[in-house]
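>> received
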Amino acid sequence: MHIAIAGNIGSGKTTLASLLSKHYGWEVHYEDVESNPYLNNFYEDMQRWSFNLQVYFLNSRFRQIVDIRKSGRTVIQDRTIYEDAYIFAPNLHAMGLMSTRDFDNYSSLFQLMSSFLEGPDLLIYLKASVPTLVSQIQKRGRDYENSIRLDYLKRLNERYEDWTGGYKLGKLLVIDVDNNKFSENPEDLGDVIRKIDAEIHGLF
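>> returned
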């Protein structure tokens, strides 16, 4: 079974993936942040490095999905390939930070890759307001994230709402992170687990 967690920067995907992995004994595949050779450059000069970064993520996540399907195990994935293609890349293009030529090339590559893929069995979307995102980004203190603009987070949130509103690739569970502090409150985590259990039992 393939469970995936989607959400904006700072919504708590990695934290929830770790907590669920511990609770269920699931294998976890994290987003490749630490060894990503483009991330620092991207936040310093988005226009120059946007295409390189998005292709790197596309490749990384496609490999993850292939590995997940081959493994035959239940795996939880921190962010999906679909968020890159439907949220991050189009947002960079709309903001003038990725050229139309690069965006069209990227989109063509994604369409080819996605023809070989199935969506996750369950998608957990962590919905969070911009103030919540900013607060959580500041807490984790990654230097390269200090320059993230509020309008960038706001635009991404709008795209997440559009994407999840029409999501049809599988089951979708929305967690309101403004009102559910699963990282700090065991009762809130228990609430998330109960909702996941209800969704999972419907998958068999």
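>> The domain at 10-201 is CATH 3.40.50.300 (Rossmann fold).
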